[in-house]
Design a protein that fits this description.
By secondary structure, the chain is an alpha/beta fold. It has helices spanning 12-23, 41-53, 85-88, 100-115, 137-150, 152-155, 171-180, 205-217, and strands at residues 2-7, 26-34, 57-62, 119-121, 161-163. It has one domain: HUPs (Rossmann fold). The protein is 37% helix and 12% strand. It has a five-stranded parallel β-sheet with strand order 3-2-1-4-5, sandwiched between helices. Helix 2 links the parallel strand 2 (26-34) and strand 3.
Length: 231
């Protein structure tokens, strides 16, 4: 079977991306990052998903992005809460982690060469997202060109292909796709600021996008919110 590296964060998008890759006939090699984020809940979610979908290997890689901070996810900066759709659509929020996807893709690129994988799947999305510059199609296209120049495989005429099957889908369409492929969204986690027990806050950008996606998809939201809020 053909092999693929899948960047697996534990959220809706990366989990859906992984089951799409599996459905396309790839053997999956999953990579998750412990990058100094404010909680480990998403890492545990990634472990559950990897086991559930039957990846060949699952690496959890330590990269200390908290060493230089600059994000509400890696430093003592408040996570934005209860923002309107208009506010989420304007500007780059404080939850943007500087160069995160560039770093993650570079690790994936290295593992792809070692495992002789010709494909990397990443669940970036340019529709229902929070304004991150490294989720745009032009960024992926530029990285693809760089990867072809920077690797042995690329120089030898076998460049790695970066797949972004969710990039033009709404969150509702993503959820409908995963549900159709049998993904258990109860395994996933989206919240930027969960409780110590792992309950989602229900108010951060990621929670709001998640709730909106499930509502528009017509799929039951299995998320455990603080105070059992699911509205």
């Amino acid at each position: 079977m053909k092999r693929a590296i899948v960047l697996l964060s534990g959220g809706i998008d990366s989990a859906t991306c992984a089951v799409i890759a599996r459905n396309e006939g790839f053997e999956l090699y999953a990579m998750t990052f412990r990058y100094g984020q404010r909680h480990a809940v998403e890492i545990e979610a990634a472990k559950r998903i990897a086991e559930n979908i039957g990846v060949i290997e699952h690496h959890i890689v330590d990269v200390d992005l908290a060493a230089f901070g600059g994000s509400a996810l890696t430093a003592d900066i408040a996570v934005p809460k209860a923002r309107s759709a208009a506010a989420m659509e304007s500007g780059i929020p404080s939850t943007y982690v500087p160069a995160r996807n560039t770093i993650f893709l570079s690790f994936g690129l290295g593992w792809a060469e070692v495992t002789e994988s010709r494909d990397i799947f990443i669940g970036v999305n340019a529709v229902d997202y929070s304004g991150y510059p490294d989720c745009r199609p032009e960024y992926i296209e530029a990285y693809q060109k760089m990867a072809a120049l920077a690797t042995k495989a690329g120089v030898e005429g076998m460049p790695v292909s970066i797949h972004t099957p969710l990039i033009s889908l709404t969150k509702a369409q993503i959820i409908q796709t995963g549900a159709r492929l049998g993904l258990d969204y109860g395994l996933t986690h989206s919240c930027y600021d969960p409780s110590p027990e792992g309950a989602a806050c229900g108010c951060c950008d990621s929670c709001l996008l998640r709730k909106k996606g499930f509502s528009e998809a017509g799929v039951l939201d299995p998320t455990r919110y603080r105070g059992n809020r699911k509205e």
